[in-house]
Amino acid sequence: MAIAAAVTLPHTAVNRRNSPSPYSASFDSFRISSSSFKQPISLKPIAIKPDFRVFSTMTIHPTEKSSQTSLLNHRKQGQILHFVKYHGLGNDFILVDNRDSTEPKISPEQAVKLCDRNFGIGGDGVIFAMPGTNGTDYTMRIFNSDGSEPEMCGNGVRCFARYIAELENLSGKQSFTVHTGAGLIVPEIQEDGKVKVDMGEPILTASDVPTIITPNKNESVVKAKLGVDGLIWNVTCVSMGNPHCITFGTESSEDLVVDELNLSEIGPKFEHHTMFPARTNTEFVQVLSPSHLKMRVWERGAGATLACGTGACAVVVAAVLEGLAERSCRVELPGGPLDIEWREEDNHIYMTGPAQIVFYGSVPL
């Protein structure tokens, strides 16, 4: 699959209700092509907005007639994928408008290629905005960077909400219902642009997480012992529609310093442990205070990421169950903080955090 993407950067605030489709600019601006670089151009960092800078080590030149014709031919044949790149605290996704079909526009194998950070667009996954199911407004499906399909993604659903607002020309405070593999999710865009998501109730029954670790608290696994890499870890297992194994330390050292972990070495050993028949996401947590937690995550199917929304929710549940934290916490992730609340009155978990556009693009498949 060739990767020759036309890219448009969001450099100013635009009223998209009265603007043409964001994708239309892709063919009228410039083209980045690895096959036709000419004289190199020295580019300085460009300030796009206070929290976004672009650095380029590529040569950028106006599209030649031949390459433009090739790209347009691809488009006429229906082989162009339009997308918008978003991130939620650095957990980045390729968003695709799939509202005209219940089948994803690309295959898992194509998603793997697109997510490649050297030879593709780069991302932790591809998210499809699809027609609603069973009365919901929309359906969200995801292919991870390894081609697997998770049930849900917390950072992904915040990006999804902002993407829907963009597609539907919505502004201000908005909410809608989203069908996911984890069930009904209700994101709400706040006045400040952040997205608050009702993530539903945590699943604690061991067989439903799923894990085959022997339950030690009713039907749940709370601060149970798990042997990994020659150490006995204390783990609590929670599902947010997808499985999570949370640890605050080992049997010999209960106070983790998460920045000292070799995540790429220990993470896969948790993910593929025989005690997790569907594999697992793993969160390593440091308690800074009863209302302030710090975590690093190894995501099932994506590896080490800068943030994991469902993981942050699962961490607060685990911390409460182990008596380490309050029901309302700020969770620090490598990409930034999320505010998580596990409400006692309805047993639902609410996650609040940002989601931002990186760029618009089009790529031939």
Automatic annotation (TrEMBL):
One cellular component (GO) term of this entry: cytosol
Lineage: superkingdom: Eukaryota
Recorded catalytic activity of this chain's protein: (2S,6S)-2,6-diaminopimelate = meso-2,6-diaminopimelate
Listed EC numbers: 5.1.1.7
Cellular compartments annotated: Plastid, Chloroplast
Enzyme class: isomerase
GO terms classed as biological process: lysine biosynthetic process via diaminopimelate
Protein's pathway: Amino-acid biosynthesis; L-lysine biosynthesis via DAP pathway; DL-2,6-diaminopimelate from LL-2,6-diaminopimelate: step 1/1
Main location: plastid
Pfam family, one: DAP_epimerase
SUPFAM superfamilies associated with the record: Diaminopimelate epimerase-like
A molecular-function term among this protein's GO annotations: diaminopimelate epimerase activity
Keywords for this protein: Amino-acid biosynthesis, Isomerase, Lysine biosynthesis
Keyword Amino-acid biosynthesis found: yes
NCBIfam families reported for this sequence: DapF (TIGR00652)
Family: Belongs to the diaminopimelate epimerase family.
Protein name: diaminopimelate epimerase
Organism of origin: Erythranthe guttata (Yellow monkey flower)
